[in-house]
Design a protein that fits this description.
single chain, about 850 residues, alpha/beta, 9-stranded mixed β-sheet, 7-stranded mixed β-sheet, elongated
């Protein structure tokens, strides 16, 4: 009892180890290593026949089997004799009342410091636990009996035990219930035979069946495999001492990249102008406690994000020259970051909670971890399950069969950790999503660059696997919290297929060929089971046929940007919009840079809208919104023309994102004195997620000369004032772009070579046929055009055939063309809009 009187540099904590303890804290357990880093000294009692037997085998000596319930009577009696106070934490209020009554009768001289029966919500909340510690400290307990159940009691002691003021903390599970008489110990004969577990299982089968029947055998196998007579030394706690990370206040501001810093933040952006500044503001608050420098690698095709970052001159921001992917962007940022104690990889859509960076650094210093990851929450405050387990065949099969259902299933059946308990305590993890990672500098140097093969997804799985191969730990720190907006976490069949493809690539990199083949089968099975779901259509073919992996998103290099370093000519951009709430936001986001110059007016003509289109447009500063009561594109175009005051004018469909360079180049062509009256930028088709037939159709279409030389098909064209005078008003026609194309001779219209506009195509053959009905109906309204257009298309289609592959594409194109015309004869005149590309 000397320790209880205060003889010791740190509190002494006593726990009972059995198979359940090994399941939680042993090798491969969820909380492995969690108790080793606490500022406490642990004494372990062997409570469990398998452990006692194994200890005897390894040491050749007899070990007593001890549980908290075996010792509690003697401990309380000795405390009463020595005048030591005892506090009780855990158990129900009723159990505490009954236990208190029995203790008063059995140990009338025992000094009870207090009884605390907090709910789980208090124990899981840091503020609640700190308040509880203050109450216990004020009560002056020399010995604190903690009966919260395993592993909660040990985890709570590891985090908060040193704050209670108690000199000895006893993690004794159900002892309060034993003292209250609610739970009876097994008969001595049953215990001597090592069958106490069967006794308890018979009494509480519902609560204990999982522990003894499912987790127990696995823990026993681990005991036999990993136990040794030699006690391994606890690794050094830190490379950067936790004591060295003191709360020192500095002037607010980022450190220049040329100077050494405590932390170098590496940020990769892709059209994140609306996100990254908010993230930097939250990161800026952290600079009063440590020196932080920031490097932003921008993968965007336009300079909008870099323009936003001009408000932060201390931040080093640069264009990578292409979309290098997440790994490529991190590598580029690290190359410019210079030296630091640690590197903090951050998504641009994060918002850091106060003290989060310091908490991650303190965790790194305390545990010696190579990487520390924070707690992530969604914008509504709910927990984002960011922790992951190493991919395996069984986990891939479990996720294939169950997905997010049955989140409480065993860890060997799920790669994602859904258990809320995992997010309540700091502990070692196998890997976590790469939204936020603090990486120790020496670990970053030794691991090397991120693997750019993955482009997106699985790059952090790969990187953290290599961290673990070095013997460095990855540690989760819930005190460090961040809000994850997930602004860049879009979804499409192509992106979803890339997730699966990269999982297969990962398995091939780190496993044998046979293992990787089975793992691939599990991934394909997952895609097959979800193929009937609308959101998953097209994914199976992309995943199963590796010849199509080249179609998945990959790194690209941009052409050198021209014409974006100066303001554009004065102009107007007109966007007709009918119920375009799902796409208008991204279209207007691409126009923020031209809007910011003050040279370009943007008018959104909402015609017959019944959704949030008008509100989305009005929320963008500088955009003018006019409401047209009828659902008519022509009426919207004419109404916007009346409202506009600037020339030239560019007419843009609401689902088309126009890069600033494309807009500027088009305006310059219309403003030059060269006889050009009508112009549009170049465009490319984005067939991501489309079926094979749709992709074949658009491959053939892109080979037609008229497709690259006409004004139609891009969803954008522009007129200068002279060209508009020839037009007058837009006539009541469906195919306004075809009509415009016919108004001007070849010398009066031009397709501008520049960064292209991307046109998203339909994803299914059914939707494509429906779209073609609308196109052919519009063409038929232009008297005499359809026949001439068909003949020219046929000649160009034949001329595009250069081999078997192009011949097949041409046949598919012809089949769709015939099918579209036949469908037109049997359908009523409606506006067949492609909703599949508006996701």
């Amino acid at each position: 009892m000397g320790r209880a009187s205060g003889a010791g540099p740190v509190p002494l904590c006593v726990l009972s180890a059995n198979l359940d303890h090994l399941n939680h804290f042993g090798v491969g357990g969820r909380w492995e290593g969690s108790l080793d880093v606490a500022p406490l000294e642990w004494l372990t009692l062997l409570d469990g026949a398998p452990l006692v037997s194994r200890a005897g085998e390894l040491t050749g000596r007899h070990w007593p089997r001890l549980a908290g319930s075996d010792l509690i009577d003697q401990i309380l009696a000795t405390a009463a004799d020595l005048g030591l106070s005892v506090g009780f934490l855990g158990g129900s209020a009723e159990a505490q009342r009954r236990a208190g009554a029995r203790l008063k009768a059995q140990e009338p001289f025992l000094k009870v410091a207090g009884w605390w029966a907090p709910g789980r919500e208090v124990l899981a909340d840091r503020r609640g636990s700190l308040q509880l510690c203050s109450e216990i400290r004020a009560a002056g307990a020399n010995i604190l009996l903690i009966c919260l159940g395993k592993p909660r009691q040990e985890l709570w002691i590891a985090e908060y035990g040193h704050l209670t003021g108690a000199n000895v903390l006893l993690a004794f599970g159900a002892v309060v219930d034993f003292l209250a008489g609610n739970v009876q110990r097994a008969p001595a004969q049953v215990s001597s035979m090592g069958l106490e577990w069967a006794w308890r299982l018979a009494i509480e089968p519902r609560r204990l069946a999982k522990r003894y029947l499912l987790e127990g055998p696995e823990s026993y196998v681990r005991l036999r495999r990993h136990s040794t007579a030699l006690v391994p030394a606890v690794p050094a706690a830190s490379h950067t001492s936790a004591d060295a990370i003191t709360r020192s206040f500095r002037p607010r501001g980022f450190t220049p990249v040329s100077e050494h810093a405590d932390v170098a933040a590496l940020v990769v952006t892709y059209n994140n102008g609306s996100d990254v500044c908010g993230m930097l503001e939250s990161l800026l608050q952290e600079t009063t406690e440590q020196s932080i420098k920031v490097v932003v690698a921008d993968n965007s095709p336009n300079p909008e994000t870099l323009v936003c970052l001009q408000h932060y001159p201390e931040v080093t921001a640069f264009a990578t020259g292409g979309n290098l992917g997440y790994a490529g962007g991190i590598n580029a940022a690290r190359a410019r970051a210079g030296t630091a104690d640690a590197y903090l990889v951050l998504n641009p859509d994060l918002r850091l909670h106060s003290g989060s960076v310091r908490a991650m650094r303190a965790s790194m210093g305390r545990t010696g971890a190579g990487v520390v990851v924070p707690l992530l929450r969604d914008e509504d405050g709910t927990l984002y399950p960011s922790l992951r387990r190493e991919p395996s065949i069984l986990r891939a099969l479990g996720d294939a069969a169950l997905g997010s259902k049955l989140p409480g299933r065993p860890g060997w059946l799920s790669e994602m950790d859904f258990d809320a308990e995992s997010y309540a305590h700091p502990h070692r993890v196998e890997w976590a999503t790469g939204a936020a990672l603090l990486i120790r500098a020496d670990v970053a140097d030794e691991v090397g660059e991120w693997d750019e093969t993955y482009f997106l997804y699985s790059e952090e799985t790969d990187y953290l696997h290599r961290v673990r191969e070095l013997g460095a730990a990855i540690w989760f720190e819930p005190v460090a919290a961040m809000t994850h907006g997930r602004g860049g976490s879009g979804s499409s069949p192509a992106l979803d297929a890339l997730v699966s493809a990269n999982r297969i690539r990962y398995a091939r990199k780190f496993h044998t060929l046979g293992y990787a083949r089975v793992f691939r089968a599990a991934v394909v099975l997952s895609a097959l089971l979800r193929a009937p779901l609308p959101a998953h259509r097209g994914i199976l073919g992309l995943v199963a046929r590796e010849t199509r992996w080249a179609e998945l998103p990959h790194s690209v290099t941009y052409k050198p940007s021209r014409g974006v370093t100066e303001d554009p000519p004065a102009a107007a951009v007109i966007i007709p919009a009918h119920n375009e709430a799902s796409v208008l936001g991204r279209t207007l986001a691409a126009l923020k840079l031209p809007l910011a110059t003050g040279q370009v007016e943007v008018i959104v003509a909402c015609n017959g809208c019944t959704d949030a289109t008008s509100g989305i447009a009005a929320a963008v500063p500088g955009v003018r919104v006019i409401d047209v009561p009828v659902a008519s594109k022509v009426a919207a175009l004419n109404a916007a023309d009346e409202a506009a005051v600037r020339w030239p004018r560019v007419y843009v469909d609401a689902d088309i994102e126009v890069p600033p360079e494309a807009l500027y180049a088009t305006l310059k062509a219309l403003s030059a004195d060269n006889g050009v009256l009508c112009a549009r930028p170049a465009f490319v088709y984005n067939t991501s997620g489309a079926s094979w037939a749709v992709r074949a159709y658009y491959r053939a279409r892109s080979r037609l000369p008229q497709s690259s030389a006409s004004m139609w098909g891009a969803g954008i064209y522009g007129l200068n004032q002279e060209g508009h005078e020839r037009l007058g008003e837009f006539p009541a026609l469906t195919a306004d772009d075809c009509y415009i194309d016919r108004l001007f001779s070849d010398s009066e219209k031009v397709v501008v070579e520049c960064t292209p506009v991307t046109v998203r195509t339909p994803r299914s053959a059914r939707v494509l046929l429906s779209t073609l009905c609308r196109v052919y109906r519009g063409n038929s309204e232009l008297r005499g055009m359809d026949g001439a257009h068909t003949g020219r298309t046929l000649r160009e289609l034949v001329g595009s055939v250069k081999g078997p592959a192009t011949a097949l594409d041409a046949l598919v194109y012809a089949a769709f063309a015939v099918g579209g015309r036949l469908a037109l004869r049997h359908t009523r005149a409606t506006w067949e809009r492609d909703e599949s590309s508006r996701i």
